[in-house]
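Checklist before submission:
- one chain only
- standard amino acids only
- sequence pasted in full

Submission:
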Amino acid sequence: MTVAQVDLKPWLAAPFRDTRFWEPKISVRRTGDGTIYIEQTEPLPPYPDRITDVLLAQAKATPTRTFLAERDENGAWRKLTYGEAVQGIRRLGQYLIDCGLSEKAPLAILSGNGIDHALLGLAAVHVGIPYAAVSPAYSLVSGDFTRLKDVFAAINPGMVFADDASRFKPAIDAVADPTVRRLFGNGATREEEDFGAALATEAGEAVERAFAAITPDTVAKFLFTSGSTGTPKAVINTHRMICSNQIMVRETYAYFKDEPPVLLDWAPWHHTAGGNKLFYMALFNGGTLYIDDGRPTGSEIHKTVRNLREVSPTWYFNVPRGFEVLIPHLERDEDLCASFFRDLKMLWYAGAGMAQHTWDALERLSVQTTGYRTVIGTGLGATETAPATLMCTWPQDEAGNVGLPCQGVTLKLVPMEGKFDGRVKGPNIMPGYWNAPELTEAAFDEEGFYRFGDALRFADPDDPAAGFFFDGRTAENFKLDTGTWVSTGALRASFINHFGDVVRDVAIAGADRSYLAALVFPDLENVSRLVPDGGTAAQLTAPEVREHFKTALAKLAQKSTGSSTLIRRILLVDSPPSMEAGELTDKGSLNQRAVLRNRADLVEELYAGSARIIEI
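Returned file contents:
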C-alpha cells in the first residue's frame, strides 16, 4: 500500500475483520501448446450422496432452529424450523408420489421465492422426482408465453405449482396440456388441488423407499439458462453436483464451520445463484435464510432496508446494482449501517462486474461503522456448474478478481485469440442438457472440460496463485473491419468505472466497423443532479449533460491503447434495458448481444451520425 493510496482512500489503512476463509494452495501444469491446468493441492472432502441427507441430519441435531423465514401478509416473519421442514417434505413427498410424478413427468414451480416453494421443491428432491423452478416473468409478461411454452416442451411437466391462481392460472391454462395437474397455494377451485390439502397428506413407506433409491446421479432439478442466445436449455442438476458444490463452498467460507450463516437474500430460485448456492448454503451449514421480499431497484429497495433493520446477516449477496441502490440508505442511516455491518463477515457480488466506486463506498462504510474492512468477494460460475467453480475470498483493494478453482475443480486455460479460454472439470459439473445431446456435446471439449465461454487473465502473470480476472465473453467478442479483436467484457467494465455513477450500463458496438461506438444507459437519478430541471429527454440533451459525457469520453480516450479500446462515439439511451426483450437477466446483468440486436436502429444512428451523438 502506498502513501498516495492511504491519502486518497484512508479506509485502506484499516485492518480487515478477522474471519476464517480457505487458504488456497494450487498446482500448475503447462503443456507444449500453451494450455495451463490449475487445481488445488488439497482434495475435496467427502460429500453426501443425497441432498436431503443434510436436512435430516440438521433436523435431528437442531430441530427447533429456524431454517427459513418470510414475511406474511401482516408483515410478521413466518418461520420454518428444520424439524418442521422434514415433516413437511415427507408429507408433500408422499403427495407427489401419489400424483404419479417422475423423471418423465416432473414438477414445475412457477412461483417466486417462498416457504411453500421451498418445501415442495425439497419434497420432490427427497423422493427422487426432478423439479424445475421457472421464472415467474415467463407467466406474467404479455404475449403468447413463448418462453413458458419452450420450458414446458423441454421437460413435459406432470404437475405445475403456483402460489397464486389468479396471477398464474391464465398462463398455465394457455400453455399446459389439460391433463397436467394444477396445484395452487391460493385461489384453487374445486376442480384444482390445494397446497394446504397436499401438505396434510400422511407420509407412508413409499417415501422411505423412494428416498433410499436415490443415487448421486439422480436428477434433483432442472435449471433453465436465460435463453439469451436462443431457446432456454434445461440444465440437469444431479444430487452429486449440488452436494459436492456445497462442500466446496463450505471449505471456501471456512467460518461457516464455526457459526451457521445468517442470510437475507432476494436472488430468484430459478437462477443457480439463488436457487442453488444461496438456498443450499443455508441448508448444508445449518443456517437461517431470511427471504428478502425486496428487489435491487429504486422502487423496491425499501423492503430490503426494512428487513436489514431486523436481520443482521453474517454473509450478504447482491448484484452490483443492488449494492448501488442500497448504499445511499446506508450512508444516511447510522442505525441501518450498524445493523447491516454488525455481524457481517463477507460481502459477495455476482451477475455483473462491480464498479470501483461501489466497492470503495462499501469499504468506507464498513470502516466508518466497525473500524474494520469487510472482505468483498466474487467468483466465476454458471448454471452448468452448480454454480461455484472459482472463488476469491482473500482481501483485495479493487473489484474484479474471481479467484481460484475450488477444491475438486480443475481449471483449464486454453490459448485463444490472444486470451485464455476458461474451462472446468469436477463433480459439480452437469452431465448435460436434458434431451439435447448435440448441445451437450458442444458444451464440452475433447477432454470433458465444460466450456464457460469466458476468457480469463492472470491477476499477476508471475503468480498464478493471485487469481484471475474475467476477460470478457468469448462469444461476445468481435473484430473490427481491420481484423482487430475487441474484448467487450473488459472494455465495458473500464467504461463504467471511468464514468462512475452517471452510467448504469453500456453496450459496445463495432463488429465489422472501422471504429468502436457505444449505447450508454445513464443512471437518470444521478444525471438529474447535473441538470435539476426538465424531464428525462431534456436531461439527456441538456448542454451540461452532453458536455459532462463528452469531457469524460475524451479523458477515457487518452487511456486507450489502440483501436480495440478507443470508443469514439456514444449515444445516451433514455429507455432502460428490457427484461421482457431479453436485454436483462433476472439478476440484472446486461445481455449485450440482445441490446445490439433489438436496438439496431440506434446502432445505425451511431455510425450514420445525428445531433444526439456525442463524439470525440
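Reviewer check: Residues 478-615 form a domain with the GMP Synthetase; Chain A, domain 3 fold (CATH 3.30.300.30).
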